[in-house]
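Schema walk-through. Below, the input block comes first and the output block second. Nothing else is stored per chain. Lengths vary across the set, and this one has 439 residues.
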Amino acid sequence: MPLDYSGQTAGTITIAMIRKPATNPAKRIGSLLVNPGGPGDPAIDFLRQDISSMTELNVYFDLVAFDPRGVGQSDAIHCLQPAQQDAYNAVDPVLDDPQEKAALIQADQDYAAACEQQSGRILPFVDTASAARDMDRVRAALGDAKLTYLGLSYGTFLGQMYAHLFPTHVRALSLDGVVDPAISAEDLNRTQLVSFEANLQAFLADCRARKTGASPCRYAQSGDPGAKLTALMQRLDAQPLPVGNRQLTRAIGLNGVLLALYDQSFWTYLDQGLTLADQGNGSILMALSDTYYQRASDGTYSSLEDANAAIDCVDRPVASDIATYDALGPVYSQISPLFGPAFQYANLLCSFWPAKPTGHAGPLTADGAPPILLVGGSNDPATPFVWAQSVHAQLAGSVLLTREGNGHTSFDSSPCSHSAEDAYLISLTLPSQGAVCSS
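--- output ---
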């Protein structure tokens, strides 16, 4: 693909793709492109791992995944060596004193500088608009007159951008776990914080309710789980737990908790991880955090973390004055005493980013596109339901399907949502406006 679609910078960028042909050629409709989100989550790996959930779609479609520019097997963003990335991820995001604040600022500056050194050629060109233009070239190369697409999480932003740029090239877009393009980086961060806190409280309420019974929550057996979780994170701040030759710091522990809130099926692992951590064994929380960062057992990382930063930093501007982040403290702590202080400076990295933002917050219309299906979970932690409602208002003719429940995205967690998305992508049959899935 062209490195720079504006033509001001010469060169190309390589995009990796994978395709699984339709299993019934006689019924084949065309190609279905998929993107799992991130930004930065490798779509090729996702398709290989999630292929069993797309059996019905595969009857009618060649299933196609491409790693967006900067991601996975495409020309990818790389910043740190594995040991350096371990150290960066262990830096405490909760700034209790001037020394910790200075350490975080220095770590972010060093990380941004390493990204420029290792991947400076492509950093300015991994924006979502360029990825959407790549996707249209992929569509054309596959021989499809119009695009059929399943986008999850950030993949919904990519899908909206495609529909905005190429509305007449759309056949069907199912956007599950909807990102709102119209709000600022700080508002994205803040509304995510609200939703992660709501999912945390759902986990804690469930744990308290199952103090006794057939499948008791072990973490509720010796005190209130919420109070115990707060105390555990304070202990990890003062004294990290050794896990092999690594240490479970508060930063890594918090990320382990966050990962488990993405899917309610992970709550049992969170219960086990917190219970073991209270006993001095941080292995499960460490494993959950490693899953969050896509850290392999050999210590290497996928491109997820680096690409996530690179794409976010060029898609939306952030405040450059550290006083702006300092001022967020009271509000963030009130929203979530556990996560708020860790989220407070999350966007600071982008203020040091060597590639300046080319995107901006604003609604993405898709006038001329057919109706688009939006799927939102009522208590989705990473893509809050209010985002789906906002995009529904922005996209004329769109249909919003609501899944009641916790956890991130619905395609793999709700049989009702899965069936509705399959029906739309295959036969263009949309659920009724205002439809709700309770399972």
